Structures are given as C-alpha cells and as structure tokens.
C-alpha cells in the first residue's frame, strides 16, 4: 500500500448508494447528485464569491472544502454524493497557460494556443503533485469534514474539451479555431491531446490517493465532433485516461474506484463507449431516451442522468412529472439497477434552491423500487 494513500485515515462511509449503483447493482432507490451542485444558484456560494476570486476559491483548500460542503449541508439526507469544488481548467493552468474567470464572460485564456509553435509555452513535464497539490489538499480536507456522510467525487476535463478551451481561449459557438487545428495539424493535435491525457490521468490518480472515491471525466464538447472525428481525437484519449488510472491504482495497491465518462452530446456512441471506453458509468444528457440507451448498452455500464436542467425553472408540477417519467424510463423491470440520478448537464445560476430540493425529494419517491 502506498504510504501516501489517505483512505485509512478517513471516517467510515455511511452512504454507499452511488458506489453500488456505479457498479451496476440494483439499489433500494437511485442515488442522486447534480453537476455544479456547488454553484451560483446557492446564496451561500454567491456570498463567498462576492469576496473571493473564482480560482482563489479553487486554490484555497479551506474555501474549496467549505463550498463543496454547502449543498451537502443544505440537502442533508437528500443528496448522495459530493463533488470537489474545482474546475476542469486547472489542468491547462498546470500545463502552463493562464486562465482567468471573467465576470459575465466565463473562463478566458488571455493567450490561447495559436499554432503548434506555441507548444514551447507549455511545461515540458507537469508534476501534478506540485502544480495541482492544492486540489488534492482540498480533497483530503473535504473527506475528513464529510465525516463519511456521502462519497466524494474527483474529476477532470476530457482532453478534447480541454484542447478546445486551450485553443479557442474560452467558450465557443462554432469551434473554428480548435477544429482548424484538428484538420490542419492532425499530428500535432494528437500530440497535444496525448500530452493532456497523461496529465489528466496522473491528476486523477493523485485525487484518488488524496481521498476521491469516484472519478468523472467531463467531455462537455463531445457532441461537437463527428463520430469519425470523435474516434480519432477524443475517444482514444478518454481510453488512455481510464487505462492509465486503473493500472496506476493497481500498481500502487490502491482499490479501484468507479470511473464515469460524460460525453455530452455524443449520443450516437453509447454502445461503442460502453464496450470500448473503459468506464463504469456513462453520463447521459437530456437528448436521450434512457430506456433506448439501456437497451443498446445492456448491463455493460451504469447510467447517470438525465433531466433537462431547465425543467428546474418549470415549477414543482413540471419537476415532479419529469422525474416520474425519467425514473420510469431508467428502471429495469420497475427497479433502479445501475442508475445514478442527475441532471443532463450542470445546474444553472437562476434556479431556486428549494426547487432543487423538490427535485431530490421526487427522485427519492419515484426511483424507489415500488414506485
Ligand atoms: C466546461 C466546464 C468548465 N468547468 C467544468 C466544466 C465541465 C462541466 C460542464 O460541461 O458544465 C466543471 C466544473 N466546474 C465547476 C465544478 C465544481 C463542482 C460541481 O459543483 O459540479 C465542476 C465539476 C465549478 C464552477 N465553474 C464555474 C462556476 C461558476 C463561476 C463563478 O462562480 O463565477 C462554477 C461554480 C465557471 C465555469 N467553468 C467552466 C465554465 C464553462 C464555467 C461557467 C462560466 C459562466 O457561466 O460564467 C469550464
């Protein structure tokens, strides 16, 4: 056992529902959490952000821990997982690029990568313990503070999604700059994707050593690529991450943790991902019919998702009806089997926190075996 593996120091876990569902097991009800559950819809989060820069919160373990725990405290007994407060863009920062969170604009790279010559601006070798040790410290502190209430999820962005940010310099509508790279400099693009994948894998292993109990890879821009381009420029690097994480954990003598892949929008590929990506769970967005996806993936993977986050603006009746329908579609023979309830993407800033509470209550009710 690696001497810096922290698991033995933590309080025993009291709620392992999400771990069982991630392994594909039948559960008494579906576990539930939501992407971006620590975020601007919470007044207690906005109060911290009014005082502190976004990346300052990420880099200060006590603040990251506090913000991670906010939804857990508010929704005690209703929420089945925490996710460490951080951002996918901490990896490009560790690789040597500057990223700022600009109010009203979102994440911004003042100097994105323009051509492969800009590789010289990236760090040759990234020591994740040194560059991203603050995330690991936040994870260790949060595991202690959670007192075993619910498991803690670690995460990173998928190489293609990070590549798009590094080249576009921020969010994008048409992905012209990043796709220009794919088609004009395919070999250099693959080199950058591979380099990023190694940093992601090392970072995920470090997160597990620090105390993360599940890992999610966010491929938020998966749906921007054609299936054949996805097979060249994204899937191999998601596979590399899964393989490298699993073999590193084995080598270190650390028990495996469930891996979740969220290939948002790549809804043509679930069967292929279930069979070849190497993940335990696939995240679905709301443009999917859960029963149809279950049919094509069989019991190879667990599924996570998938209510449209905007339903949370529709009031209690709309939320209840959508959850009832979602539960019915995800269940196998009337039971939740290998299903983690979630939204189909992150929760948005304008949601009333009490409406999210109602969403959790409806999931508890409608996902239970008898409902
Ligand atoms: C693409 C992406 C990013 N970051 C992330 C993704 C993948 C998930 C997805 O597709 O939504 C992942 C992420 N970002 C954040 C988390 C924290 C954990 C959680 O509660 O889920 C996670 C898992 C915090 C955050 N990350 C961000 C916020 C809000 C910013 C703020 O506090 O000002 C939070 C809570 C900022 C961010 N960071 C990023 C974007 C697009 C934005 C939003 C910009 C905006 O709307 O202003 C990059």
From TrEMBL:
Q: Which reaction does it catalyse?
A: uroporphyrinogen III + 4 H(+) = coproporphyrinogen III + 4 CO2
**By its UniProt entry, which Pfam families does this protein fall under?**
URO-D
What InterPro entries does its record include? UROD/MetE-like_sf, Uroporphyrinogen_deCO2ase_HemE, Uroporphyrinogen_deCOase
Its chief place of residence is cytoplasm
The answer to whether the entry has keyword Glycosyltransferase is: no
Annotated GO molecular function terms are:
uroporphyrinogen decarboxylase activity
| Entry GO CC | cytosol
Q: Where in the cell is it found?
A: Cytoplasm
Q: Where's the Uroporphyrinogen decarboxylase (URO-D) domain?
A: 31-40, 153-169
Pathway field of the UniProt record reads: Porphyrin-containing compound metabolism; protoporphyrin-IX biosynthesis; coproporphyrinogen-III from 5-aminolevulinate: step 4/4
One of its GO biological process terms is:
protoporphyrinogen IX biosynthetic process
Q: Tell me the function of this protein.
A: Catalyzes the decarboxylation of four acetate groups of uroporphyrinogen-III to yield coproporphyrinogen-III.
Q: Which PANTHER family match?
A: METHYLTETRAHYDROFOLATE:HOMOCYSTEINE METHYLTRANSFERASE RELATED (PTHR21091), UROPORPHYRINOGEN DECARBOXYLASE (PTHR21091:SF169)
Q: Which HAMAP family match?
A: URO_D
Protein family according to the UniProt entry: Belongs to the uroporphyrinogen decarboxylase family.
Protein known as: Uroporphyrinogen decarboxylase
Biological source species: Serendipita indica (strain DSM 11827) (Root endophyte fungus)
């Amino acid at each position: 056992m690696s001497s810096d593996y922290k698991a033995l120091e933590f309080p025993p876990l009291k709620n392992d529902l999400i771990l069982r569902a991630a392994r594909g097991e039948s559960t008494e009800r579906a576990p539930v959490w939501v992407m971006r559950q620590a975020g601007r819809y919470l007044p207690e989060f906005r109060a911290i952000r009014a005082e502190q820069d976004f990346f300052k919160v990420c880099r200060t373990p006590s603040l990251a821990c506090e913000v991670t725990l906010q939804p857990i405290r508010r929704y005690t007994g209703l929420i089945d997982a925490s996710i460490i407060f951080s951002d996918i863009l901490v990896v490009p920062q560790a690789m040597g690029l500057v990223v700022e969170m600009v109010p009203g604009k979102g994440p911004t790279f003042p100097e994105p990568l323009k051509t492969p010559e800009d590789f010289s601006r990236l760090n040759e070798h990234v020591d994740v313990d040194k560059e991203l040790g603050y995330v690991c410290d936040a994870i260790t502190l949060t595991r202690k503070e959670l007192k075993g209430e619910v498991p803690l999820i670690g995460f990173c962005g998928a190489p293609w999604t990070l590549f798009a940010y590094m080249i576009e310099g921020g969010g994008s509508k048409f992905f012209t700059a990043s796709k220009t790279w794919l088609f004009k400099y395919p070999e250099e693009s693959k080199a950058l994707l591979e380099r990023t994948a190694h940093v992601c894998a090392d970072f995920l292993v470090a997160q597990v050593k620090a105390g993360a109990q599940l890992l999610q890879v966010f491929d938020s821009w998966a749906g921007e690529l054609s299936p054949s381009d996805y097979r060249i420029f994204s899937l191999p690097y998601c596979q590399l991450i899964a393989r490298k994480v699993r073999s590193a954990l084995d080598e270190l003598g650390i028990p495996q943790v469930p891996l979740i892949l969220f290939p948002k929008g790549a809804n043509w590929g679930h069967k292929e991902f279930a069979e070849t990506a190497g993940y335990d769970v696939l995240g679905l967005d709301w443009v999917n019919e859960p029963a149809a996806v279950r049919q094509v993936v069989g019991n190879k993977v667990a599924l996570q998702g998938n209510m449209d986050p905007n339903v949370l603006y529709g009031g209690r009746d709309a939320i209840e009806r959508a959850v009832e329908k979602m539960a019915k579609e995800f269940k196998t023979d009337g039971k939740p089997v290998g299903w983690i309830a979630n939204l189909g993407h992150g929760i948005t800033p304008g949601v009333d926190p009490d409406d999210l509470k109602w969403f959790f209550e409806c999931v508890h009710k409608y996902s239970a075996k008898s409902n």
